[in-house]
Amino acid sequence: MIKRLILNLSVLILLLLVGHIAYAAELESIDIGDARNNPGSTQIKGGTYTIKGSGNDIWGNADGFRFAYTKVKGDFEAVAHQVSIELPNEWAKGGVHARQSIEAEAVNAQVIVTGGGGGGSQLTWRAAKGGASNEFMDAAPGPWKDGECWLKLTRKGDEFHSYISEKGKEWKDLKSTTVKIDAPILVGLAVCGLGGMATAVYDNFTITQNGKTIFPLAVKLEGRLSATWGKIKLR
Q1: How many domains does the chain have?
Q2: Are 165 and 149 in contact (CB under 8 A)?
Q3: Does position 1 have pLDDT exceeding 70, yes or no?
Q4: What pLDDT shows up at residue 4?
Q5: What is the pLDDT at residue 33?
Q6: Which among 59, 65, 63, 58 is positioned nearest to 40, based on CA atoms?
Q7: What residues form DSSP beta bridges with 156?
Q8: Nearest partner of 144 among 172, 169, 124, 125, judged by Cα
Q9: How far apart are CA 31 and CA 68, in angstroms?
Q10: DSSP labels for the chain?
């Protein structure tokens, strides 16, 4: 009887500890800017993220889009596998996004897939709050929106570098830019329908620092049993 009570107590403590650790890997999902007028959604199932987003654009002086993100301090590498993407308008887009805050005018940098200009992938950014957005046009033209691909955004100091790959092995360099963003920075997946509702499906979304994965957080429980945490908090 005493052994069973001790065992049950040990399991309870372990679960509480795991719950506390898992919170650090929680994603928040929110509609930014005017996307609130046509709310999107974010679902996670078995490590697959299905994100629906509207909004006016991730461009200009203010943004409107769906954002699923976590907070990161310091340098990082964020990678996502685009399983599929449905874009209702030419310049609708989706990809890996980093920004200072959830304010529509916040500074940001992102690597995205878009249908604009005949289709392609590019690095875009806003270096000053409420300022103009910029891009490296035609960095990777092609039908990226019509199939699977991998996107990568890295940060080293104030430099943000973007890449795209067909298989996630050989990466095409989409150039880099300098954007000053104070810690913590919001890093995640962004989808914008540009007046309509875009739908993107991603998996293998990871954020690493110094070779160590900080999202999703895998916690070893006992023996070979492990759990990967990527819970969504809706707002």
Answers
A1: 1
A2: yes
A3: no
A4: 55
A5: 98
A6: 65
A7: 159
A8: 172
A9: 9
A10: -HHHHHHHHHHHHHHHHHHHHHHTT-EEEEEEGGGGGS--EEEEETTEEEEEE--SEEETTEEEEEEEEEEE-S-EEEEEEEEEEE-SSTT-EEEEEEES-SSTT--EEEEEEE-GGGSEEEEEEE-STT--EEE-TTSEES-GGGS-EEEEEEEETTEEEEEEESSSSSPEEEEEEE---PSSEEEEEEEE-TTS-EEEEEEEEEEEETTEEEESEEEEEETTEEEEE--EEE-
Residue 235 has pLDDT above 70, yes or no: no
Q: What is the pLDDT of residues 61-105, one digit of tens each?
A: 999 999 999 999 999 999 999 999 999 999 999 999 999 999 999
Give the pLDDT mean for 214-228: 54
| Residues 185 and 69 sit within 8 Å (Cβ to Cβ) | no
- Which amino acid is located at 116 in the chain? G
pLDDT of residue 190 exceeding 70: yes
126-143: average pLDDT:
93
Range(s) of the domain holding residue 78: 2-234
Q: Where residue 138 sits, what CATH number does that domain have?
A: 2.60.120.200
| Per-residue confidence (pLDDT) for residue 226, from 0 to 100 | 32
- Give the pTM: 0.85
Task: Give me 106's structure tokens.
Answer: 């916040």
At 80, give phi and psi (nearest 5°).
-145, 145
